[in-house]
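Chapter summary example: a protein plus iron/sulfur cluster.
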Amino acid sequence: MCGILGYCAPQWDPGLTKFFGLQGFNLQHRGQENFGCTYSNGKKFNHFKDKGLVSQVFTKERRDHFNQIKPLIAIAQTRYATAGGTDAISAQPHWMTLLDGFYSNATNGDLPLLQEEIDNLRAAGTVMLSRNDGEVILKKILHAAHGKNGGDLVAGLEHLMKTTPGAYSGCLMTLTELYLYRDPYGFRPLYFGRWRDAVVFASETCAFNERDAELEREVHPGEVIVVDLQGRITHHQLVKPNRHRQQCIFEPIYFARPDSKVFENDKEVGHFRYQLGRRLAQEQLVGDAVVVPVPDSGRFSAVGYATESGLPLRELFIRNPYIPRTFQIAGQSQREDLVRLKFTTMLSLLGYRRNFVIVDDSLVRSTTMRILIAMVREAAQKFDIAPRDLEIHVRLASPPIKACCYYGIDTPETKELAAATHSIREIAEFIGADSLGYLSLEGLDAVASEFDKPTNYCHACFTGKYPTKYQTRKR
Ligand code: SF4
């Protein structure tokens, strides 16, 4: 999963560097392993990419050079490595200098037939530097654009959309033009708008939360938007969007920032989560308990659960925000250690409450929930609370995750997903909960229908019914 961002401006504005950096910070939650950037002032270009956060990679030296070159076009990506490693070659943007010019590309999403795409490119004589989707996409576009189309990038993008199933919201730039594009299924969000004279874009609307920025709309599935240095914008609906979009329902459940709107809804993601919590309380009520959110992923749903049930809401866990997301860490014991580092329990609550309903957005491997419950039980011993007097219920604001994702969310292989291999009772026992309840698929769709038609969302990780062809791959 990644975030992409950038701008194309008819003239240099010194405020652009700050705005661009802020966009990166606002999309940091979408990827923390790499940050990379390509920029051009219409005559000269430069690029950098490295491991680390925006603040670590967009250093003072790089910002100084950025300011010096006065770029009129810039594209960037915050990255989680779902395809290829975290080395700089696999990171994005990718770039190429051909006889007729310079090209750079960054995408958000995954190609479910990645290996087949790489094999086809190689068979056609293309040299691949990485196993990353963004490089495949850049080379497919350029191959098609230069094959019979005289360098026409819109034709290259049309070929990409007609021949490449998968999730890709992307940005492509030359020295003088910016191209925004989105796959015909619309798996991943992508928005554009204005910041002063510049056309700006980003994966989520939270990157437009700045005084001078105005959001225009999302890039439609199957659409390409071309922006040039004169400020001209042309729209090309290259491929009819699929009858049903396949917007990733995990964006509003978990991934997007709560203050973002995704998929052209007029309500924020935090509201979606709140409604999931309310519906969860209707379906999976615990009679008498204190509602406890898993921070920060379960917070909005816990508030919804408490509001609907009338149960009190308290914080029991404190999360250290500087520890990375644990579901992406390789190795079970390392993941468990990190959960213990990441969370602490508020012991004082245990002094007067013994029954809890812990609310989270979802359960992947179950590592986090199992450790959290173990931590509460360990803490209870300090108050001499007998195990039989402590009640811990778990409620999850999404259905059981039974299949892995091939479209850009880095869930583990199916065999590592708790709900793919175990019954609800077995999972409850394993995590040490007195009861476990999931939101139903019908409940999820009932909430989603407040935002869009439920058929416009991908549900593959709950149903195992994938909307495109896919190949299983090693992560
Ligand atoms: Fe999103 Fe799940 Fe579909 Fe992946 S499989 S795109 S996580 S809904």
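Key point: The chain has a mean pLDDT of 93.
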